[in-house]
Amino acid sequence: MLILRLIRKIRKNTFKFIKTYFLIVLLAGLGLTFFVILPAWTQQAVTIKTLVRADEAQQLQPLATKFNQQHSGIRFQIVEAPSDSNQVEDLYTSSFLLGNSPYDLVYMDIVWTSKFAAAGWLKDISDRLSAAEAAEYLKTDIAGGMFENRLYRLPFRSDAGMLYYRQDLLEQAGYEPPETFDELLKISQDLQKQGLANWGYVWQGKQYEGLAAMFVEILAGNGAFWVDPDTLEVGLDRPEAIASAEFLHKAIALKVSPPGVTTYAEEETRRLFENGKAVFLRNWPYVYSLALESPIAGKFNIKPMVHAPGKNSGATLGGWGLGISTSTKHPDETWEVMKFLSSEESQREFVLETGFVPSRTVLFNDLEIVAKYNYYPKLLDVVKSSALRPPIAQYAQASDILQRYLSAIITGSSTPKQAMKAAANETRNLLKR
Q1: Is residue 24 part of a domain?
Q2: Do 137 and 182 reside in the same domain of the chain?
Q3: pLDDT of res. 5
Q4: Together in a domain, 72 and 116
Q5: Do 181 and 249 belong together in one domain?
Q6: Between these two residues, 41 and 296, which has the higher pLDDT value?
Q7: Residue 141 and residue 386: Cα distance in Å, rounded?
Q8: What percent of the chain has pLDDT over 70?
Q9: The CATH number of the domain where 426 resides is what?
Q10: How far from 338 is each of 18, 159, 321, CA to CA, in Å?
Q11: Residues 247, 409: contact at Cβ < 8 Å?
Q12: DSSP label at 279?
């Protein structure tokens, strides 16, 4: 009997032990599920949003898809905006003013940088980009992303104004490509007299940002300046700046440029040049690949913009870059997207697909890119001579002032001297406010 009771007791304790053991294992399993496995199942990727013009949004989408395939924890989403850059800027501005902007990554035109940074809408990214990494980009592109000596914009694609010319017509008439403003006017008039072209020189004269961008090149070529960003000194009423305005007025007065140039933007001038109506064209690099499929294919070339004797050529720097919104809750994830888009591999893929200009210097001589766009090494010389529009907080208002007075000059409602003096005074008053 004693032995039987002992056996029953052992069995009972063993059952309790086994029961306790399985209970511990069950609780451990539940803990693993709730604290490890379940969060992994339910955790959603961080979404990083940006706003992009509709036309370029479609071009960027392959890169967004590629990023999302390679990054399970981050989802990059492109929101399409109107194709008008001014409307995109307004949408960004409205979202920032309302607070808690839905956009983490800011895809911006170079001229928005100072305005957005001064308003406190962009995070300082100076410490995220090393000096060695910055050296891989065009110096002017990095400079274009600075405001008050801090970096707010990482370059993605560059742009610079340049002079297109009909090489076949110049060779036929025995001319070398012009180097100065006067040479451009002289060659234009001669070729027009010979009946080789309807117009000598076409450029962007419509009252919009393109007019101000084009004029920066004329100012640089005359050794003049618009606004010194360090001192806020205004140079529009100096003799060199007045001479810059006189060049545009003279081009129309001599009928080198058509009277309708005062209403032309990039596309109107491109079509005139590609249809063989003009000898010279001021425009951006995107025209080159399009002109290769036009009636003048194989008959044109490019060079830096003309300038005054003894002065240097200027090419207005354009292009788009990437910034981090101060309202984002995910700055590190946003930076990951920025690094991916601006990488050498992504830029190469984007350039090969679109023909846009890279911001990384090495890509101008990339074998794959040069095989498709053989003019890129020459394009590097143009981009290196680029000139910045004033990186000031009040840039939008200053540009509006300049556009209005330039329009008055080229439409004949004011003289260059009167208009430039008025523009200088109004700009000074703006900067004092």
Answers
A1: no
A2: no
A3: 53
A4: yes
A5: yes
A6: 296
A7: 9
A8: 90
A9: 3.40.190.10
A10: 56, 19, 9
A11: no
A12: E
Same domain, 151 and 121: yes
pLDDT-derived band at 13 (thresholds 50, 70, 90) equals low
Helices (H) and strands (E) counted in the chain, each on its own, are: 19, 13
As to burial, measured by CB atoms within 10 angstroms (0-12 exposed, 13-18 middle, 19+ buried), residue 413 is exposed
pLDDT at residue 33 greater than cutoff 80: no
Q: Are residues 358 and 424 in the same domain?
A: no
CA 102 to chain centre: 21
Contact 398, 382 (CB under 8 A): no
Question: Which amino acid, one-letter code, is at 128?
Answer: R
The residue assigned the tokens 């809750």 is 329
Q: Is residue 23 part of a domain?
A: no
Residue 82 lies in a domain: yes
Angle subtended at Cα 166 by Cα 160 and Cα 167, rounded to the nearest 5 degrees: 105
> Do 263 and 131 share a structural domain?
no
Could you read off the pLDDT of 370-399 as tens digits, one per residue?
Answer: 999 999 998 998 888 789 999 999 999 999
| Whole-angstrom distance, CA of residue 33 vs CA of residue 144 | 51
Q: Report the domain count for the chain.
A: 2
Judge if 96 and 201 occupy the same domain: no
What is the chain's length? 433
Confirm whether pTM is higher than 0.90: no
Q: Which among 162, 166, 185 is positioned nearest to 272, based on CA atoms? A: 166
Structural domain span for residue 358: 47-159+318-384
d(CA 376, CA 412): 39
CA distance 296 to 217: 25
